[in-house]
Amino acid sequence: MQIAKEVIDSLHVLLAIVGGTLIITRSILFKPVREWVTKKNEFLGEGITCPMCVGFWMAIVVYLLHKFNLSIFILSLEGSIVSYYIIKK
Fold first, then answer.
1. pLDDT at 28
2. How many CA atoms lie within 13 A of 7 on its CB side?
3. What is the mean pLDDT of residues 69-83?
4. Torsions phi, psi for 41 (to 5 deg)
5. Which residues contact 37 (CB under 8 A, 6 or more apart)?
6. CA–CA distance, 57 with 77 (Å, rounded to integer)
7. Exposed, middle or buried: residue 28 (CB in 10 Å: 0-12, 13-18, 19+)?
8. Where exactly are the structural domains of the chain?
9. Number of C-beta neighbours around residue 37 at 10 A
10. Among 6, 12, 43, 47, which residue's Cβ finds the most Cβ atoms within 10 Å?
11. How many CA atoms within 13 Å lie on the side-chain side of 20?
12. C-alpha of 39 from chain center
């Protein structure tokens, strides 16, 4: 029973990273933000449209929210990689 809960929790973290990355890097909602950032700074504009970059920073946020849980951080980084392969151009 405990293993099933851990698997479901892991899937929640992965889905949160991939979903958040998708919203930031590709959604219409964030399009004005991406365009504004790109106009202000080309380097940051490239970063906000990069699924792996955004996924990495989301992993840092999730890690901090889970009180420095290393296994959550590693899982979050895996979410960054999954985001890249699912969302890449």
1. 95
2. 4
3. 78
4. -155, 110
5. 44, 45, 48
6. 9
7. exposed
8. 2-87
9. 18
10. 47
11. 20
12. 23
